[in-house]
Amino acid sequence: MASSAKLAEWTFMVYLAGDNNLAEAGETDLEEMRAVGSTSQVNVVAQFDNARSQGTKRFHIQKGGANETVEDLGPTDSGSPEVLLGFVEWAVKAYPAERYALVLWNHGGGWVPSEIDAIAKEQGTPNYNVKEATQRAATPLARAFFRTTLQRIFSVPSPAERAICSDDGTGHSLDTVELGEVLAQVQARIGKPLDLLGMDACLMSNVEVAYQARPYVRYIVASEEVEPNEGWPYEQVLQRLVDNVQLPTEELAAHIVEAYIQSYKDSGYDGDVTQTALDPSQVDRLATSLDVLAEALIKKMPAAADDMWAALRKSTYFYDRTLWDISCFCEELASLKDADIKKAAKAVQEVLKRGAGNFVIAESHRGPRVSRCKGVSIYIPTLTDISPFYQELEYARDHKWLKLLKAYEGA
């Protein structure tokens, strides 16, 4: 395996959980990576669980695929945190570098009913009917990163309770808790925080995720919206990196945002797309301003519940009305007559302004439905009860949003 006393500048790790209906998209992304390939200063490595080849392979990506190192791992469970950590451990040992990026390319099209059914049966799920697997595959649960997320939900006693858990929306509760635990272990293996966490996945640019990841990651790139099958434009991302290996990580994160949106503009894609670069070290500023807003709304309950709903109806939501663009929501709240709510909402909008040194480093979007978005969502369930797992999140424990959600639900 490649190793040297002299560290490369970057090791860029891509974890493709493609044992699903988007295996072909994963193959396309590998070819995009091969259009650039590794250099002496940038190691591009990937682990691909490919449904079409019935197994998992590790690659040290080379330009055009020439003389590419490929390791066949046989069947793996790409939803297992241990499999992901094994990939990181291998990459760090084989290709040590000054800086590390990890891109999580998740289930994309989602856990299919047969996979969910198998997990439910393994768990001995109480009061389970095979139809439930199909029902859950049509909810945000299908987009969970980790098998452990599904396992815990299917240990809940009744179908009604499991429905509330699964409608939590990807990027929250159990999946986010598990992500934080995985990132803590990634940091332990690297010996320092991960320089860049990329989520070539859906719905992950939100305050709860950033807060959970903040001790372990320097920068995050993620999307508020569901991503199209094509995902990230890896050729453009990697070309910028190999052309300027000393590029500050913050600038690389901003470049990924712009390259992502430009790729869909160039292809003529007519759907809605979003992408955001975040600095988790600044998330406390947003959390504090949201605390003030939560307090202002709680103080005015139950009347404020009507104001919240009126604001939400005019705001942009993602996936089943569980995740809402914070800036849109606050823009609508700022139009209210109540001085305290108006002031607090405007303060949140101020914190969400993008730029170097801010929580939102860069943000871009395309499409009419997301035209007012500013890059970060938050959990507000409107069609279901509050997930019982939401309270496990560090953000929910440390701040006042859960208290607001309970007051809103009670009103």
Question: What's the mean pLDDT score?
Answer: 90
Determine the oligomeric state from the structure.
Answer: single chain
- What distance separates the N and C termini? 61 Å
Helix and strand string, N-terminal first? EHEEEHEHHHHHEHEHHEHHEEHHEEHH
Strand order of the largest sheet: 4-3-2-1-5-6-7-8-11
Structural class: alpha/beta
Please state roughly what percent of the residues sit in beta strands, choosing from under 5%, 5-15%, 15-25%, 25-35%, 35-45% or over 45%. Answer: 15-25%
Low-confidence stretches: none
The count of strands amounts to 12
Helicity level:
40-55%
**H/I helix tally:** 16
* Overall body shape: globular
Question: Nutshell version of this structure?
Answer:
The chain is of the alpha/beta class and 411 residues long.
Which helices and strands occur, and which strands form pairs?
Layout: E1 8-18, H1 23-34, E2 42-50, E3 55-60, E4 69-74, H2 81-94, E5 97-105, H3 113-123, H4 131-137, H5 147-153, H6 159-166, H7 173-190, E6 194-200, H8 207-213, E7 217-222, H9 234-243, H10 249-267, E8 273-278, H11 283-299, H12 303-313, E9 317-318, E10 323-325, H13 326-333, H14 339-351, E11 360-366, E12 377-379, H15 394-398, H16 401-410
Parallel strand pairs: 1-2, 1-5, 5-6, 6-7
Antiparallel strand pairs: 2-3, 3-4, 7-8, 8-11, 9-10, 10-12
